[in-house]
Amino acid sequence: MLTDRNFANDKITIEKIIEQIGTNRDYLYKSVKAASGKSLKAYIYGMRMEEAQKLLDDTDKKIEEIAELCGFEIQTTFNRRFKEHFGFTPSDYRNLGKKEKLVVSD
Fold first, then answer.
1. What is the span of the domain harbouring residue 43?
2. Which of 14, 15, 21, 87 is 20 to 30 Å from 29 by CA-CA measure?
3. In the chain, alpha helices (H)
4. Rounded CA separation 20/93 (Å)
5. Is the pTM of this model over 0.85?
């Protein structure tokens, strides 16, 4: 079954999506655009970034592992995409979150 989590975790391809939902490329692109207002590529990257954010917040997994879990084979690509999306590198984001949690608990 195809879910938002599949978009984030798997090294999903357009062909896999088309096969799983039984449609064609044009219909898939138009459907995603109509539902999300984003291109399919932007939608997939957004899902991957949201999953990465959750993993950084909720786990102690290494950033390299998070990158791989979110479909990025190269950590530097993941770091760059994450910074473009959130304005922080993954390590800065994680450190910022820990500092905020410390302030809240005081």
1. 4-105
2. 87
3. 4-9, 14-21, 25-36, 40-58, 63-69, 75-86, 90-105
4. 34
5. no
